[in-house]
User: Fold this.
Amino acid sequence: MIRFENVTKQYGKELAVKDANLVLEAGKIIGLLGPNGSGKSTTLKLMAGLAKPNKGRVTVNGEVVTRKIAKNVAYLTELDFYYEPFTVNDMVSFYASQFSDFRLEKAEELLIFMNIERAKKIKQLSKGNRGRLKLVLALAREADYILLDEPFSGLDPMVRKSIVKSLLTYVNFGHQTLIIATHEIDEIEPLLDEVILIKDGNYIAQENVEQIREVEGVSVSDWMVKHFIER
Assistant:
């Protein structure tokens, strides 16, 4: 499980996460939902060891998070981070050299599914194909936790639907937990087990998706709007 205990993260005078307590149980697909600038990316960086809390602590499977947590956490950034002279194949080989849980066979299968040419230089790829490559690199790992930050940014709607469906195929939910930070809810709602709402650095709600649909009788989108209006 991932646990936040009284976590505050501050950039200068800006509080990105405010005195937060949060528990994310393993083996689920969890949506971290909120508008741009709400603190979603910072939350994932805290889980991945790429940001250090100013106060409190973050633990993954009981271990206090540092940069070494990368052995248990695969992180997909919303930013382009590639070495542009690299080919797709170069980037796959680089990841395989850095992470012992990276599976080349799975990467090959994902590249075929995503329709990405291995020999192409990354600088020649469209924004959409660079986004697909990031998904390949994250999903080819067998890390306990896969963190995806706005993974569908730049992808057209038909491609998004296809890739969302593929997540069920390429993630081992007996072993892995998938956490998706996004403001685009409609495509991923059918996959989600649990949702967490974040607004202005505060986690304002956390709920089981089945509870939302069956007991409250609304979609996740409507539930989110209701909570944002109330707050």
Observations:
- The CA atoms of residues 44 and 147 lie 7 Å apart.
- Strands lie at 2-11, 14-24, 29-33, 55-60, 63-64, 73-76, 145-149, 177-182, 194-199, 202-208.
- The chain has a mean pLDDT of 90.
- The radius of gyration is 17 Å.
